[in-house]
Amino acid sequence: MPEVAIVTDSISDVPESEQERLNIVVIPAVVTLDGETFQDGVDLSRTEFYQRLPDLQTPATTAAPTPLVFEQAYERLFSQGIKKILSITLPPTLSGMYNVVCQAAKPFGDNVRVFDSGQITLGAGFQVIEAAEVARQGGSIEMAVERAQIVKENIRLIAFIDNLEFLKRSGRINWLSAGLGNLLRIKLLVEVADGVVKRLGQVRTRAKALDKLKEIAESWGPLERLAVPHSMAPDRAHDFASRLEHLCERKIITPEVTTALGAHIGPGAVGIIGMKKTN
Questions:
Q1: pLDDT for position 178
Q2: Is pTM beyond 0.85 here?
Q3: Lowest mean pLDDT segment, chosen from 16-25, 31-40, 242-251
Q4: What is the predicted pLDDT for the residue at 182?
Q5: CA-to-CA distance for 175 and 197, rounded, in angstroms?
Q6: Residue 105 in contact with residue 114, Cβ under 8 Å?
Q7: How far apart are CA 133 and CA 129, in angstroms?
Q8: In angstroms, how far apart are the furthest CA atoms of the chain?
Q9: Which of 8, 33, 83, 248 could cross-link with 12 by S-S, CB 3.0 to 4.6 Å?
């Protein structure tokens, strides 16, 4: 058994196949729909969530689980013989998850390290997977942290938001409120980097948004990993991924993003997450 375990949350969108292969522990985020609270991916499937989203009486809200949930996960791993834990999580600028994880890690001292991914969805998930690969091969926690940091520095995430109303309701993006009436009819291009959501531009149609994403992805050069995440737009994501196959030797992942993220971006969004080749 490896001496190092990797823990993350469901917002990292690590595929179930990779969770099982690499023994990655994923703690579900919490989402509330019209007063009902669910564990992301446990009590509520992503398909059901997106089906319910347009008809909600009040906007969906999200939250981090309690520190106790993480503490119990750490204790289980230590009882199984794990010596060190690397907990890779969301940036504090985008979620309360980071502070919850830090609080949960305190009782364990140096045995639990918390790493700010600076990212969301597979922007964080690729860091998790690569760190877990190091752990599986017997690497130390220092080696796993170093690998996560290298991947973090070589991750790019760009997306277009199909319906800005959900992002407006979330209140998470301060700059979005200005001129929103004019923006509702456009497709907004955003980038996530170092825990900050930046506005890249806007286009009028989905086709133009996808063309722009393709142009950006091609500018990144050869990629070690590539994902096309989406929110209830599987056909659009799969078709778009087929246009990008020349950029990456690995199979392109097309995950439906976590409910905790979908609550803020709404249905119809598509993105690109590229990990540049590293040594």
A1: 46
A2: yes
A3: 31-40
A4: 52
A5: 10
A6: yes
A7: 6
A8: 57
A9: 8
Beta bridge partners of 22: none
**Across 21-25, 90-94, 99-103, least confident range:** 90-94
Predicted local confidence at residue 169, as pLDDT: 66
- Distance, CA of 218 to CA of 212 (rounded, Å): 10
- Structural domains of the chain, ranges and CATH numbers in brackets: 4-29+64-153 (3.40.50.10170), 155-276 (3.30.1180.10)
Question: Which residue spans within the chain are E strands per DSSP?
Answer: 4-9, 25-27, 30-33, 36-39, 61-63, 84-89, 112-116, 155-161, 187-193, 196-203, 223-227, 270-276
DSSP letter (8 states) at residue 26? E
Place of tokens 């906007």: 59
What DSSP element (H or E) covers 100? helix 97-105
Q: What is the dihedral of CA 269, 116, 63, 178, to 10 degrees?
A: -50
Amino acid code (one letter) for 232: M
d(CA 173, CA 193): 14
To which residue do tokens 């729909």 refer?
A: 33
pLDDT 10s digits, 100-109:
999 999 999 9
